[in-house]
Design brief:
Layout: H1 6-12, H2 35-44, E1 59-60, H3 72-78, H4 89-101, E2 106-110, H5 113-124, E3 130-133, H6 138-146, E4 150-153, H7 174-184, E5 189-195, H8 208-221, E6 225-228, H9 232-242, H10 251-260, E7 264-268, E8 279-283, H11 286-299, H12 310-323, H13 326-345, E9 358-362, H14 363-366, H15 376-388, E10 390-391, E11 393-395, H16 397-400, E12 416-420, H17 428-443, E13 451-455, E14 466-469
Parallel strand pairs: 1-10, 3-4, 3-5, 5-6, 6-7
Antiparallel strand pairs: 2-8, 7-8, 9-12, 11-12, 13-14
Helix pairs in contact: 2-15, 3-12, 4-12, 5-6, 5-11, 9-10, 13-17, 15-17
């Protein structure tokens, strides 16, 4: 099975253009405010795109989390919500869907992904233990640290190079895992946190071979592996495309096998599963599940709703089924690639290969004259909004936070600005507008100056920090 890109699909199938496998039934009007209005809005927001009002945004690429367009079947399912406090039938529909497509034994529902991260960290990490991971994610690492864990990056070195074309830049470096085992002892490793795909690396995938090898190594030492399954279906697409043994298998089959190499998973259902809210923790271990299902009552809600309404669980259950449809995922990643190809044609620096859910602009290459401590990725997000009303987000030194011991900035090798594509929301024409705006900002890059941080919250500062022009 081949997966043509959107620029060539039409030619191969005798059509003039590629089209999404859905039609529009309802529209939400957009408006564009003037540049002067955007300047005021950005100043009021402290040059932080998270603090902009959505009414002041034209094309919103801040995140693909909860911003998807639900299908007619999902909306119909919302009308069948069983809002019983205990034992909602929608919970059992969700549990059945998770077991069928992800293959885990137990389900703990949560209000969203970070709720699952919180509970897993509480029940699986002892104070002083280490957690290896294929690059950190902001909320995941924070929950691990608050539980007394220390995160150790065990991703392959290629992931830290935006221009490297390794097909699976999300892979775990098994030598780094072995080194961690040798240094601290297997008993002091809570688990390995495997993200698929890897957000902070640019939406980069993990190969099936790597997941299998990681499972084998960890099994030898009695170490659990937990999956961040937020975009695991997108990861399955890249396995289908790039690993020879999987080109004739469905996404559903690939997903199920991939999950089988792990002991459980956290899920933000606001991504792959096409819902606007919701998440879950899945576990195979009975004892760990008993503790987690008790913990969810304390922090989220009863173990049969976990912070979600019945209608949301039904939409999520249906979304899981729709997410593993090959045509859907081919179109979803095709749209991301279309934008990426426009930018690479104009020689604009982005993370390559293009990942599954976003285009990551290389802000270091954009603004080589702006030091990292002057927040080039945050600056680029601000400039894009000023140019066109497009909202993106920073994924660099601001997101990396501070070193807990020294108080200094963590300085990641990747300084990126993320253009995140919601599923089934924008058209190809919107992608053209985005690409043209990026090019306009790139053409003016030499005139751009950086920012200084004037307000910094204690945790997850990228959400609420405020900046001023230097």
């Amino acid at each position: 099975m081949t997966h043509p890109n959107p620029k060539t699909m039409g030619q191969q199938f005798g059509r003039r253009s590629w089209a999404e496998p859905w039609k529009i039934k309802m529209v939400e009007p957009l408006r564009v405010i003037t540049r002067a209005e955007r300047e005021r809005a950005l100043q009021d927001a402290g040059y932080n795109t998270f603090l902009l009002k959505s009414d002041d945004v034209y094309i919103d690429l801040l995140t693909d989390s909860g911003t998807n367009a639900m299908s007619d079947r999902q909306w119909a399912g919302m009308m069948l919500g069983d809002e019983a406090y205990a034992g909602s039938r929608n919970f059992y529909h969700l549990e059945d869907a998770m077991r069928k497509y992800y293959g885990y034994k137990h389900l703990v529902p949560t209000h969203q992904g970070r709720g699952a991260e919180h509970i897993l960290s509480k029940v699986a990490i002892k104070d002083g233990q280490y957690v290896g991971g294929n690059m950190y994610f902001t909320t995941t690492r924070l929950h691990q640290e608050l539980a007394g864990g220390t995160f150790v990056d065990v991703i392959i070195d290629e992931a830290h190079d935006p221009a490297n074309l390794h097909p699976f830049k999300g892979n775990v470096d098994l030598n780094k895992v072995q080194k961690l085992i040798d240094e601290v002892g297997a008993q002091n490793i809570a688990y390995i946190s495997l993200a698929a795909t890897v957000n902070m690396a640019g939406g980069q995938p993990v190969s099936m071979a790597n997941a299998r090898a990681l499972r084998e190594l960890c099994s030898q030492h009695g170490i659990r592996v937990f999956l961040d399954a937020t975009r695991a279906v997108e990861n399955a697409f890249f396995i289908q495309e790039r690993e020879a043994d999987y080109q004739n298998k469905s996404l559903a089959e690939i997903l199920h096998e991939f999950c089988s190499y792990t002991d459980g998973a956290t899920m933000s259902a606001k991504k792959d599963s096409l819902a606007n809210i919701g998440g879950w923790l899945a576990l195979n271990d009975d004892v760990l599940f008993e503790e987690a299902s008790n913990m969810v009552v304390v922090y989220e809600g009863l173990h049969t709703y976990g912070g979600m309404a019945g209608r949301d669980m039904e939409a999520l259950a249906i979304g899981i089924v729709e997410s593993v449809q090959d045509d859907h995922m081919r179109a979803r990643i095709g749209q991301v690639r279309y934008l990426g190809e426009l930018l690479t044609d104009w020689e604009i620096p982005i993370v390559r290969p293009v990942g599954g859910h976003a285009i990551f602009l290389d802000a270091r290459a954009f603004y080589p004259h702006i030091p990292q401590d002057d927040f080039p990725a945050q600056t680029l997000a601000a400039e894009l909004y000023l140019d066109s009303g497009i909202r993106s987000m920073e994924r660099g030194i601001v997101s990396a936070g501070r070193n807990a011991k020294t108080g200094d900035h963590n300085r990641p090798k990747l300084e990126l600005t993320r253009l995140t594509i919601p599923r089934r929301v924008y058209t190809q024409a919107h992608m053209d507008v985005v690409a043209e705006s990026v090019k306009a900002v790139y053409d003016q890059r030499a005139k751009t100056r950086g920012l200084k941080m004037v307000f910094e919250p204690k945790y997850l500062r990228f959400f609420q920090a405020r900046f001023e022009r230097l």
